[in-house]
Specification:
Rossmann fold; 6-stranded parallel β-sheet; single chain; 37% helix; alpha/beta; 2 domains; 7-stranded parallel β-sheet
Length: 409
C-alpha cells in the first residue's frame, strides 16, 4: 500500500509527451511511469509533431490523468527571418512561445475545477516555453515549482545560438525568473548544474538536485550475434549544428589505412533523421564502399532492438571544447548493455565512458579516434565491457527512487 506521501497528486507540464517522437517525450514519460503517485500530465498535442506510438512507456505505477492542449507547429516565415538574424524571431524563448499563455490559462482553470489541488508542479525544459508555462501556472495557483533543465538555457554553448544582445538579455532574465521561483532546480548531471548555476548566489545553488536520464531494462531484447558474423557498430540519434559524424569518419579512414583486415567483418551504421545529409560527404567517399551506411530513422522500440543487437554503440559529443551534457541517447545505450565508445570533448561523456569501462577519443585527434576504432573492432562482442554498478544507477527504478526523495522533501 502506498505511503501517505504517495497519495498526493502532482502536475507535470511537458510540451512533448508520447506519442510524440521527441526525446523529451520518452525521458519524461518513462520517469513518471515509474512513480507511484497520481500524476496529472498537461502536454502539447499537435499534428506537426512527429508521432511514434512506441515512445509510450510500459505500465504506469500510479493513476494518470492527461490534459492534451493544442500546440503550435513550425512557422516557415519565422524560420526564414531567424536565419537572417532578425532579433527575437524564434527566440521568445523558442518557436513554441504561442503555447505559453493559452496553455497556462487552460491548465490553471483545469486545476481550479478539481476537488483537490496537486502538491507541486513539475516543469520540463526544454523547450523553454514548456518550463515557462509551468512557471506561469505556479504563479497563478501558488503551487511550488520543480524546474527541470535538460539542457543549458542562457549558457547555450553555441548549440542553440542567441544571435543578438536583446535575445540574450531576455533569456538571461527568463532563466533567472524560473530559477528564483523554483523550489528545486533539477539537472541530469552535475556538470550542467555547475555551468548554469555558476552565475547565481549560493541560496539558489542550494536548490539544485541531480536527476539523470534513465533507461527501462524491460524494453531491450537479449543480445544475439549476427548470423553472418558481422560486427555492427551503430550510432542512433540526431545530428544538429555542432554534433556531426565527420570527426569519426576521418578517424575511421585512418584506422582503415592502418589495418584494413580489422574491418572485413565490421560495419558502421548511422541511423537517424539527418543521416541523408552526410551521404555526399568527402569523408565518406574516402572509405571503402559498404563500410559505412547512413540510414533513415526507425521507431523508438526498433532503435532499442538495434542497440541490443550491436557489437558496440557509438556516442558523439557536440564539437565544443567541453560538453557538460548527459546525452540522453547514451543513457538509452546503457539499457542495451553493449560495449560503448565515444568521440568526445573533455566533458561529461568522456568521464562517464571511463567510469563505465568504455572507449573514448578526443574529437580533435583523428589518430586517437583511429586507435579507439581499432580497439573496438578487435574486441569480442561478449562479454559486454560495462561496469554494471555504474550502469545500474541509470535504471529507471533507481532514478525514480532519487526523484521520489525530492518529492518527499
Amino acid at each position: 500500500m502506498p505511503s501517505k506521501a504517495h497519495r498526493h497528486s502532482y502536475l507535470a507540464v511537458s510540451l512533448f509527451y508520447p506519442p510524440s517522437a521527441e526525446t523529451r517525450a520518452v525521458m519524461v514519460s518513462r520517469l513518471l511511469a515509474a512513480l507511484p503517485q497520481e500524476w496529472l500530465i498537461a502536454h502539447g498535442a499537435s499534428l506537426y509533431f512527429r508521432q511514434d506510438p512506441s515512445t509510450a512507456p510500459g505500465p504506469q505505477a500510479g493513476p494518470r490523468e492527461f490534459f492534451p492542449l493544442p500546440a503550435p507547429g513550425h512557422a516557415p516565415l519565422a524560420a526564414r527571418l531567424a536565419k537572417r538574424g532578425v532579433p527575437l524571431v524564434q527566440q521568445r524563448p523558442d518557436r513554441y512561445r504561442a503555447w505559453i499563455q493559452p496553455a497556462s490559462r487552460a491548465i490553471t482553470a483545469w486545476l481550479v475545477s478539481r476537488p483537490r489541488p496537486p502538491r507541486a508542479i513539475l516543469g520540463i525544459g526544454q523547450p523553454w516555453s514548456s518550463l515557462m508555462t509551468a512557471a506561469q501556472v505556479s504563479r497563478n495557483t501558488g503551487l511550488p515549482l520543480l524546474a527541470y533543465f535538460s539542457d543549458p538555457w542562457y549558457d547555450s554553448l553555441g548549440l542553440n545560438r542567441l544571435p543578438d544582445p536583446l535575445s540574450r538579455a531576455l533569456h538571461r532574465r527568463w532563466e533567472a525568473q524560473v530559477v528564483g521561483q523554483a523550489a528545486k532546480v533539477m539537472f541530469p548531471c552535475q556538470d550542467l548544474a555547475d555551468l548554469v548555476m555558476a552565475k547565481y548566489p549560493q541560496e539558489q545553488r542550494d536548490k539544485v538536485r541531480i536527476i539523470p536520464h534513465s533507461f527501462d531494462p524491460a524494453r531491450y531484447p537479449v543480445f544475439a550475434p549476427d548470423a553472418q558474423g558481422i560486427k555492427y557498430v551503430r550510432f542512433l540519434g540526431s545530428f544538429y549544428q555542432k554534433l556531426t559524424p565527420l570527426p569519426f569518419l576521418r578517424g575511421l579512414a585512418r584506422a582503415q589505412e592502418m589495418d584494413p583486415a580489422a574491418f572485413e567483418k565490421t560495419r558502421y551504421q548511422f541511423i537517424g533523421p539527418d543521416a541523408a545529409y552526410f551521404q555526399g560527404a568527402p569523408e565518406l567517399g574516402a572509405l571503402p564502399q559498404g563500410l559505412v551506411s547512413f540510414l533513415p530513422p526507425v521507431s523508438y522500440q526498433d532503435s532499442l532492438d538495434l542497440m541490443a543487437a550491436s557489437h558496440a554503440l557509438l556516442a558523439i559529443d557536440p564539437e565544443i571544447p567541453s560538453c557538460p551534457l548527459l546525452l540522453s541517447k547514451l543513457v538509452d545505450y546503457l539499457g542495451a548493455n553493449r560495449p560503448l565508445c565515444g568521440v568526445c570533448t573533455q566533458g561529461h561523456t568522456k568521464r562517464l565512458l571511463a567510469e563505465l569501462g568504455g572507449w573514448s577519443a578526443d574529437y580533435q585527434d583523428p589518430g586517437a579516434i583511429a586507435e579507439m576504432i581499432l580497439q573496438v573492432a578487435q574486441a569480442p562482442s561478449e562479454p559486454a565491457r560495462l561496469d554494471q554498478a555504474v550502469r545500474g544507477s541509470y535504471a529507471v527504478q533507481e532514478v525514480a527512487r532519487r526523484f521520489q526523495a525530492i518529492l518527499d522533501e
